[in-house]
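JOB MANIFEST
job_type = single_chain_structure
chain_count = 1
residues = 264
[input]
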Amino acid sequence: MKKLTKLARKIKRLLRQLNQREYLHHFGPKKYKFYQHVFALLLMQVGKFSLRRVCNFLILLEIEAPTYSALCKSRKKIPISLWKFLLNQTANFKHFSVAVDSTGFSRTNPSFHYVKRINCEKPIKSYTKTSALFEINKKKFIALKTRVKPRHDIKDVSYLLKNKKINLLIGDSAYDAESLFEKCFDKNIKVIVKVKKNVKRGFYRRKMLKDYSDEIYHQRSLIESGWSSVKRKYGGSVSGKSFRSINAEIYGKAICHNLNLTAN
């Protein structure tokens, strides 16, 4: 019970820092405040609950919470910008050494019986891909980009680096691209990327190779440990159907991971 009240206290403090009003919108009658919706959605990730189970769980503890249908609607209505602000507040704004990597979250599929009945050899739904920036020193996620359909890792780097003050970026060979090196050079960001074999062309690639260090590059594995921690604690799958609900779930997992590393 103390942990639940501590989580609610952290959420209230974050919303005050964002100057967020008590309710998400000003239309119609409102029974529950915005922090109660966010609290239930984050608790859903902490306990690996469904929307119905998190409502029943809070009712058993005699805690006022929105119904599962209200949570399902609010999960889609909460703007992505607000999830970004919450993630930034939990990660702080000063970032020095950052690793970039992507992972996949599986989506719920029909039963094996149904797949067999329709003569389908492969799962109907593919996984959801998420790219992230991970602060190495604080071990927190600072930026996310989710795609319902798989794309190459390099496609999301520009979005992740937008409005971020970074001194060092570490990535694997998937991020070996002259365009990335040029952008980081313009922003005064030092890049440590594992170069692909027999690829030495490019003015900015050669500049990056002068500062390459295996010792620094091996710190990239910390982001893989971070993704492993998220999936073990909060689940490696998403239950949402639409992009907004899937994105809200993944942001909720990352925010819970950051809050877990926050002392108060």
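[summary]
The mean pLDDT is 85.
The first strand starts at residue 97 and ends at 107.
exit_status = 0
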